[in-house]
Amino acid sequence: MKKIIKVCTLIFVLVLLFSVTSCKIFNKHKDPVIESIQIVESSVPSKIYTTEINDKLDDIQIQVLKSDDSTETINLSTSMISSEDLSKLQTAGTHTIKVSYEGFETTLTINVEVKNDGNNNPTDIEYTVLVKDIAGKPLKGFYVMFYDGDEKLTEGYTNAEGKFVTNLSPKNYDVVVEGRDGYYLNREMFQTDLIGSVIEVEAEIESLKGVEGDIFTTYELGDVMYDFTLTNTEGESLSLYDLLEKNKLVILNFWYTTCSACYYEFPYMVEAYESTYIDSLGNKKAYKDDVVIIAINPTIAGNGDTLDDVKGFKESMGLTFDVALDIDGDTENLTFDPLFTNQFSISAYPTTIFIDSYGLIAEIGVGAVTATDKWTQTFDKYLQDDYYPTYTGQSGEEDYMEEPDIQQEDSSVLEDAVNGTNHDGSRFEGTYSPEDGDDAKYSWPWVVEEFNGKQTIKPSNQDKNPSYSIVYITTYLKVGEVLTFDYFASTEEYDYLYVIVDNAIATQIVGKSPDWETSYAYLALEEREYEIAFCYLKDESYSSGEDAVYVSNIRILREEDIDKETYIFRECATGSINEFTMSYQNYVNVVYNEEDGYYHVGTATGPYLLADMLSGTKWNNSTLYEICLEGKCIGADGVDYNAVIEEYSVYASNSEVGYTPVTKVLADALKEVCKALGDDLAKNNQNQWLEVCVYYSAYGTGGKELGLPTVGVMPFEPIMFEGNGIYTPATASGMIDRIILPRGIIFGFIPEKSGVYKFYSTEQIETQGWICDENGEAIAEPDYGLREYAKILSNGGQLDDNFVAYIYLEQGKLYLFRACFYDINEYSSIEVEMSFVADTKELLTIASPGFFTSSDDEMSDIISGNYVDVEIGDDGFYHVKDSLASDNYVYCDMAYINNITGVTLLQALSSKYNAFDFSRDEFGQKIVDEDGYYRVTYFDDQNNMIRYYVCYDKNNEYFEVENIGDNGYTEENGYTYVKFTDEDLEKIGLKDYTEYVTEYVNSNMVTNEHLELYGCVKVDEQFAKVLGLLMDKYTFEGVEFSWLKLCYYFKYLGPTSSN
In 180-270, at which residue ranges do the beta strands (DSSP E only) sit? Predict the structure, then answer.
């Protein structure tokens, strides 16, 4: 390809893959017909050895005579010869055989001899056994044996190409092929011929249900999967072949919690998984009924994720499919290397493995898929009733783009439509051509269309997702002349028109134009002929608007004609390449500006030098980011620069232009990495690092250069708040017009006064925010647990979608505030405010915020809740440890709605709910029989000389007690039953505490509605026990201090607080 697509995929498309096939173009006129064929005798050798039959036959030519007296010469192939005649050619002698082509026949006479070594012994020939599966994938590891009678001559295994090759003298040998795990052979015995024809063996796929791989197992595309068992975060076992018995597709998605691309991909995956389709019978079904997704976290493989982290992430992201840890089902030992991650050699995240209904690894995808319809299209392929495996030879290279069904019109048609008038009054001269050669297979042409009263050309690939449309224009420019055109854009946010000059992007156009606009696309720096390309590149997602960019009035103007701010893309290394030094003819001069900390082109105030981290380098098709993901960014000085390259690659991906400004740190890394990984001949080229750098020349700006394209996305370049927030709120705003990961625009604030500040958003759209230190590490999140929110909800109000966060800040320090919309696909300006509240503040906030989480220790699964550290004071009530608040009591909220019972605790006391009657379950049903008896069994602890009684209620749930006292016994149906006294029931937590709670609340609750603590009671040890029983009843049993989720405390914010 003309390098065009690689350039176009600069920012938003990592790889576009195209297979090389030819397209047959049909003539509009009547074709001449074949009248006869004949052998070109001069091409027939005087003799052919039996060992050379296949190769030499291909050299023989056939002349095809046609009805218009024209001739065509083609080469003979074995497909033109019958199998019977081919068998003749395996023996010595003069043979006359028939040759057939397109229904016509002729004869060929050929002399065949057996080649020998001079001593009348036949020369060895090469015999090949080729094993493939039903999809055509070559298979390694099949055991092959060659026999001459009962004597085994040679043996071995097929290689990675599916071949076992050996050299033997020509003879009819018996060949035995043995299968391996995952495959069986309908036929295992074969026989060679005398000319070395390849023996092709097709292996059928065999289920490996119950057969598991081991630590030495490795997988690649097309392999049959061994069975496996994983345990999801809910403790359920997931076995591959059990899943395939009920589903048609199993997807393994490898991810980790801090992977930004994974974070970006999951919402689309969930949406596709939850959506519906119409099956072959016309029934509406959910994809999740036929597709299984297991999101596999590699656990300890360097990412530091714990089971708590994974469960919390699943909850926060709303993942509705299975999530599991890659620890081979061993949830008690998290020190093992992740099994699947190693078996698949996972080195980049996310990586997605598609296992079809045959148990084959049908696809391996690397990188985020960020379009719901791309996921559903993939699902559809595997859910078809007639699905059959195919093998493409490389992961992900399946052709999924639609081939064009129209052709570009003659250049003159496009010229007449859009060639305008140049600055000197002449008409623009340029010839228009489509993509050519093999690359034309998927390239849609540009077509002429009248739009808004103008003659235009436009791409023809509307609603083709993904796709691209290219037209090339060849024209001549003098120094200082500007390629100019008018355009009207109507596209979605990720469908781009790239204007490319000599394989480098000059400008890009996206979005919706309010009216016709003018693009000053390129200013020539030298006089010569240029190749310009218009490439409209569509991603996998939806289309929007007219789904096109209309181009009109293409012309040449002068630099002085540019009447608006225009920034033209430039590369830092240009001109011809010296083949001896692999150096470019020209490199820009760069200057480091000590004041702003960036490199500039030409002068210290010239254009910012920008690094291209996301395109293939001039010496490697991989991007710097891809190289660093493989851990290969090691400099010539031996220093590991992978972290630096990855950090700045993230900045580039979040940049307004797709490039990151070059700091001293980045420059040092680029110099060393390029020296180490670049061309060997360029090791001494001190400017080689500039080959991955670009810049923008400014025109029509009055001397103003393009500003930093990464303001608000790098921690050291925040958008600063305006104002100090002391008397009036300080404000800041930024535009979120693209996906930014990690999430959010970064704002900065340096307090003029120490104290408590309130940060909040002022949008009508749901927002999120984090307050960070100067390094970007989060130190405070929105205060979702304030009691005032519970009050609003209890009084019938609703909470708005803005975030609010309080934090104590120290004077003179830089703090960062990262703000974003909750929906990652929401694009708009975002405004935030910050105001001084007080020198110190005490917030009445939830004592145990967030969800329950679980983790594994050596003994068992433990569910825990995040909570403040509390202790019982001398007064008998619970207090917050080491609190600096003026009131450090723990308060239970009786008056406002909580997340546990769904009603207030005062309401929960009523007979409608019976929440505090623990002889009833959460549905109000009695858990013992009418007479209060329990079925009991017992076991003896010999070491401690204790007898434990196991008591079962009528729901078959049980508990253990050491002593059942002198209670009444009864025997029935072979079981022993015991009746507990009220004292016993209290010991085991099955007593009705309604009366006790009522009396406690009446004695301790704050009843003044004007006070902040209205409806609250202090918590003593006994009341905490009862609240714990309530939590056991409605949530998880036995979780320490779970009752704090029903309680509040005064959170102190001040100069010595940790916030």
Answer: 183-184, 189-191, 199-205, 229-231, 237-239, 249-254
